[in-house]
Design brief:
Length: 254
């Protein structure tokens, strides 16, 4: 069996079941352990499956229904506040920054209410937090509105973002797995990618539960972020693993 046929067979099996083992593939296809592991590594690099100990797991079966902004507000609150407070100290007065959608970033916005900053966002909740601040020069990026997260997306939002430049961009995500950062919505991921590409420094803010997790749309490489900021509950082993890719800062470490 040629390589393409092997890869298609593996993906076909994962479309019918959640997990497949290396031994299953070896027995079914009559190939060596080394060949199977190379095939799985290639498919993982293309974000078409997730390698696990002894085999692989389907990405599609891991997709969850997207949580609303309201649902996310009550999850990991302590950790998100810790990340927000830590991150705010890394923003200098007078900067022009982009803040994407997400409840962790809403906590960051609360930390910045009294600061002298220019803030651009495509998040209506973040706009509402900052709109009454007399010190902030605030710009809301408009476009197609996604009620589930309160974000503006689409071609109009994309055009507006690409015409701007930021000293720093702060982005959140639903999942980070090795060199892939993912979210549920392709339209939101696209705006975040554009904003990051227009920023001098790029920050990813995610709580510890987002590591080694997966979601539908990969919008950026972990290695392209200058810093990943997380909470103090991230294990030292996982921190060490990801520090091979980028700078990881735990919010309880000064």
């Amino acid at each position: 069996m040629i390589k393409k046929e092997r890869l298609n067979w593996i993906l076909g099996q994962l479309s019918q079941q959640t997990i497949i083992t290396v031994n299953d593939i070896m027995e079914a296809l009559g190939v060596s352990d080394m060949t199977v592991r190379r095939d799985l590594a290639e498919l993982e690099k293309e974000h078409r499956l997730i390698r696990i100990h002894g085999g692989a797991q389907s990405i599609n079966n891991l997709n969850r229904q997207e949580k609303t902004n309201l649902e996310k507000q009550s999850v990991q609150v302590t950790e998100k506040k810790q990340i927000a407070t830590f991150t705010a100290k890394r923003i200098q007065d007078g900067e022009t920054i982009f803040i994407g959608p997400g409840t962790t970033l809403e906590f960051l916005a609360q930390e910045l209410v009294d600061r002298n900053l220019r803030i651009i966002t495509n998040s209506l909740p973040i706009f509402d937090i900052l709109k009454d601040s007399s010190n902030i020069d605030l710009l809301l990026i408009g476009g197609e509105y996604r009620p589930v997260t309160g974000a503006f997306v689409g071609s109009l939002a994309s055009t507006n973002v690409t015409s701007l430049t930021f000293s720093k961009a702060f982005i959140s995500a639903n999942a980070i797995y090795r060199d892939a950062v993912a979210t549920y919505s392709e339209s939101e991921g696209t705006i975040q990618e554009l904003a990051l590409n227009k920023a001098i420094e790029k920050f990813l803010l995610v709580d510890h539960q987002k590591f080694n997790s997966y979601d539908f749309f990969v919008f950026y490489k972990t290695s392209n972020f200058d810093y990943v900021i997380t909470d103090g509950k991230l294990s030292d082993n996982i921190k060490t693993e990801y520090e091979k890719i980028t700078h990881v800062l735990k919010a309880n470490e000064e």
